[in-house]
């Protein structure tokens, strides 16, 4: 195939992805995964404005996690953000539903020379703005086959983030997860010694633009765990936010944060993938 025919094909493909991703907003749930019932909501009307009377603001430590500027910006990264959900009295424009309002920026999937597909925005993205949710099929980790061969899995490891438990790991293992689904009911010791992510978002067969966002050791996005309908942190939503003001056409990246040597290939050997993020502090390997 000639270079021009190949580029035309890539452009058509990218356009197709761009159009189809615009309309894929929410995750699918595998048949054997049961999502907990909707949590009780706040009693606010219209928009939540008073953190003292809003029970969702109370879950966030007594204040709203977002400022309303630019349609909602996360004030600072948090262990977990509690957004308003289906049982709340407020409406869809409530600032405490910032990550639920769909794509706001014109995102483009494009081809790089050494990392495959990548994503950039045609628009300026202000620091703290939600960029996109990691959408896919919500699955149990222990049912995935060939996890080391699947590039589109996001393990929901919010406990690791919350407890500063180091790099994400990508492995399959029988794990025993505490029966409790409430943040502060889980025993600390269990967390540190036994906890492994139980669920993941698998974007290999179904997903949105987030599946094409590459890793960087010095990223411009960060991962934020969000609870909106239920309060089970094992099944938290994963949303990517701008870590800085991001100028148009700059590649969007987040830190995959894998622990080095944590991925075992089908041959039983440690898998090593070089990192091509090109930043000054590059760790040289994805895992
Ligand atoms: C979630 S996908 C990202 C989209 C991918 N580039 C594609 O073409 O579909 C993750 C995979 O992209 C590649 N990748 C992402 N970031 C990379 C980086 N900094 N250096 C090298 N490869 C990277 C690796 O193959 C990784 O397993």
From TrEMBL:
Gene3D superfamilies: SET domain (2.170.270.10). The keyword Transferase applies. SUPFAM superfamilies: SET domain. It is found in: Chromosome. Residues 105-257 form the SET domain. GO terms for molecular function: double-stranded DNA binding; histone methyltransferase activity; zinc ion binding. One of its GO terms (biological process) is methylation. Residues 271-287 form the Post-SET domain. InterPro entries: H3K9_HMTase_SUVAR3-9 (IPR051357), Post-SET_dom (IPR003616), Pre-SET_dom (IPR007728), SET_dom (IPR001214), SET_dom_sf (IPR046341). The keyword Phosphoprotein does not apply. It holds the Pfam family Pre-SET. Keywords: Chromosome, Methyltransferase, S-adenosyl-L-methionine, Transferase. One of its GO terms (cellular component) is nucleus. PANTHER family: HISTONE-LYSINE N-METHYLTRANSFERASE SETMAR, HISTONE-LYSINE N-METHYLTRANSFERASE, H3 LYSINE-9 SPECIFIC SUVH4-LIKE ISOFORM X1. This is Histone-lysine N-methyltransferase, H3 lysine-9 specific SUVH4-like. It comes from Durio zibethinus. The gene is LOC111308146.
